[in-house]
Design a protein that fits this description.
Length: about 300
């Protein structure tokens, strides 16, 4: 059987250009995956440069790059500061993030990420994570399921979906994607079946992996880690994620506005570099998974 590509990097040039790499700098790729972005960073680093990468999925370790300047850390990026400190790193020149799920995670049926396959309810990026899709679907209160579908899936019929799941699991717990799909079937309109199911899966995945909490904790640490003029180059794939990144770049906060001093000046940690970057038609044609990507770049003040 032909081996499938682990992941095709999105906005490769634009994202790495965004870091304005200094050959002797120290960089971090917090979402290593198949290592596409990391390889490009290494190409632009000189012999004194350093690259640290994170991925919480142990499958990504197979892609580790054999290079003295490179270190791969099999941990969640929400602990970025702690693990960099372990390697004696307190300041860095740039951080790249390409959030969400890799093609590999979608393509391996038994990981449970894809609507295409029959699988146990799992969806953990970290295979030893405590919360799985089984846990969310069978243990969460109806109100928690409702909020999850509303916030992470932007599903208007979230209350109905939550009620149907709670009703169905009373009989017997839902163990597989097939059992879950059977419960969801009445809520999947014929011409939009795939789209709605994908939104439902996305909501469950974000919850299972605590993606919003991890993103916020990570972003907060970037301001302390980056040297002056250090860069962040971040790709998001859904609106909630992109909104957090955008607000954080603008104000160093996720909500509200920063306070002004006596003279009416606000102190913010970043300066925006350019505007929003999205893939062109050509890239989307070649790599459909690029279609929802949004890249934002900023420089530490
Ligand atoms: C979209 S892929 C990145 C692909 C990569 N840029 C490449 O070129 O191959 C996202 C990767 O980040 C990892 N990931 C997502 N959230 C993470 C987190 N909070 N901590 C560590 N790794 C995470 C996933 O396991 C996945 O491998």
């Amino acid at each position: 059987m032909e081996e499938m590509e682990y992941h095709n990097p999105v906005l490769l040039k634009e994202t790495v250009d965004g870091l304005a790499i200094k050959p002797d700098g120290t960089y971090v790729d917090v979402t290593f995956g198949g290592g596409g972005h990391s390889s490009e960073i290494l190409k632009r680093l000189g012999p004194e440069g350093k690259l640290f990468a994170f991925d919480q999925d142990k499958d990504a370790l197979e892609n580790a790059i054999d290079d003295d300047r490179f270190t791969l850390i099999n941990e969640n990026f929400r602990f970025i500061k702690r693990f960099l400190r372990f390697y004696g790193v307190r300041k860095v020149d740039g951080i790249l993030g390409d959030f969400g799920v890799s093609s590999h995670q979608f393509d391996v049926a038994d990981r449970g990420f894809s609507t295409r396959f029959e699988a146990d309810l799992d969806m953990r990026m970290n295979q030893s994570g405590e919360i799985s899709a089984y846990h969310v679907i069978n243990e969460y209160d109806e109100s928690d399921l409702r909020v999850m579908f509303l916030q992470y899936g932007e599903l208007r019929n979230a209350p109905k979906l939550a009620r149907a799941i709670v009703g169905a699991r009373k009989e017997e717990s839902l163990k597989t994607s097939v059992e879950l799909k059977e419960v969801l079937k009445p809520f999947l309109p014929k011409h939009k079946e795939h789209k709605i199911l994908a939104q439902i899966y996305q909501a469950i995945r974000i919850e299972v992996n605590q993606e919003i909490e991890a993103l916020k904790e990570f972003l907060i640490q970037t301001t302390g880690l980056l040297d002056t003029k250090g860069r962040i180059s971040l790709i998001s794939y859904h609106s909630l994620e992109d909104r957090l990144v955008k607000r954080f770049i603008r104000s160093g906060m996720f909500e509200g506005e920063p306070e002004k001093d006596l003279y009416g000046n606000v102190s913010v940690p970043f300066k925006k570099v350019g505007g929003l970057i999205v893939p062109g038609e050509e890239e989307i044609k070649e790599n459909n998974r690029a279609r929802s990507a949004k890249l934002r770049i900023a420089e530490k003040i």
